[in-house]
Amino acid sequence: METVQTIQDRAAAVVEEFSFFDDWLGRYEYLIELGKELPLIEDKYKTDAFRIRGCQSQVWLKPDLIDGRLHFTADSDALITKGLIAILVRVLSGETPDAVAGADLSFLDEIGMNEHLSPTRKNGLSAMVDRMRQYASAVQTSGALPEPESDTPSESDEPFDEEALRENITDALRLVYDPEIPVNVFDLGLIYDILIYPDRTVKIVMTLTTPNCPAAGILPAQVETRAANVDGVAEARVELTFDPPYTPDRMSEAAKLELGFL
Fold first, then answer.
1. For the domain 162-258, what is the CATH code?
2. Strand partners, 205
3. Is 63 helix (H, G, I), strand (E, B) or coil?
4. pTM above the 0.70 mark?
5. 55 is a catalytic site residue
6. Burial of residue 188 (number of CB atoms within 10 Å: 0-12, 13-18, 19+)
7. What's domain 7-142's architecture?
8. Using one digit for the tens of pLDDT, what is the confidence trace for 43-62?
């Protein structure tokens, strides 16, 4: 006989999964993986009617009421945010409106989300929880989901300081190290370019010291995760290139000094 999981059961499973990671880089990478398993909203519903306001990046959430239970599909244009909504969908989807409205979500504190997320991502997480509870409350009151609001023109992006954002991204990349070299990837010269687009998506063009570098499987993912977690970045992606090939001349003076090149 199949065991029926409760909200508490699924929340406990999430806590257990996150406990396997000793550092926050690992947890962020796992968030991104969870986002890939998210039940996706259909593209036709990616409209303002289903967009969650209060999130810096775009997040869409669609509820369905099936046999008295709420089911959610969602999507986001930012990797970590997509992972956050994936956790909420996993824990709350398939439950009754009463259960969703009164759910104890303290597991988010247990896995460190309220402690380690940037302020804007914490606000976005709260907005996601609020929207799911609002849908539940509407069904409790009227027995049905509210009609979607008519689409309104999308709000224009707020202006941002591109150079300040670039500096913050650079600082974040200086926290990523090749495990065999005591110099961060930025000062090592592995970052060829940081492209910031008007929608705050970021493309990082990087290389490796050699095409067969042992860290090839981890460094690009670490760079992407660090950049994606910078406050103000909607989404980050890494493009790996070996044109032009890497040479030690790309290292900063500090890196050359550290490695004995000076």
1. 3.30.300.130
2. 193, 239
3. strand
4. no
5. yes
6. buried
7. Alpha-Beta Complex (3.90)
8. 999 998 999 987 767 899 99
